[in-house]
Design goal:
Elements lengths: L14 E3 L12 E2 L4 H13 L4 E7 L2 E7 L6 E9 L4 E8 L8 H13 L4
Antiparallel strand pairs: 1-6, 2-6, 3-4, 4-5, 5-6
Length: 120
């Protein structure tokens, strides 16, 4: 089985990723103390409680959600990648269209970080 990776962020400022190396796109991954299956269920419960989210793909160590904005119905793709060896959850959050997101993707992921604290 090939190891899944997250796509790099584009040059536009409407993306954050734990695997990005530049300051504009980089963000810290979530740390994880529980076994992967438990952590994944906890993360899914938190994300499912957020408005306008839809799970579009899932496997043992990967989740892909679509978040739709309220007013203009823009879709952002949010991916989570569970690294059981490093006990981290990597993620990427990116707007599908446009250039700037006014920091929405970063704010969302920091909100998720706060909501999952102590649950992973």
């Amino acid at each position: 089985m090939s190891r899944r990776t997250l796509s790099p962020c584009p040059s536009s400022p409407n993306c954050v990723s734990t695997q990005a190396t530049d300051e504009g796109h980089a963000i810290q991954p979530f740390s994880c103390k529980k076994p992967r299956a438990e952590a994944k269920e906890a993360l899914k419960a938190v994300v499912a409680a957020l408005p306008r989210t839809k799970l579009v793909e899932e496997d043992e160590s990967y989740l892909h959600y679509e978040f739709t904005s309220l007013l203009l119905r823009f879709v952002d793709d949010v991916e989570f990648l569970f690294d059981a060896e490093d006990k981290t959850i990597h993620f990427r959050s990116a707007s599908r269209t446009g250039y700037s997101d006014l920091g929405v993707n970063r704010q969302r992921m920091e909100q998720v970080r706060t909501l999952v604290q102590g649950k992973l």
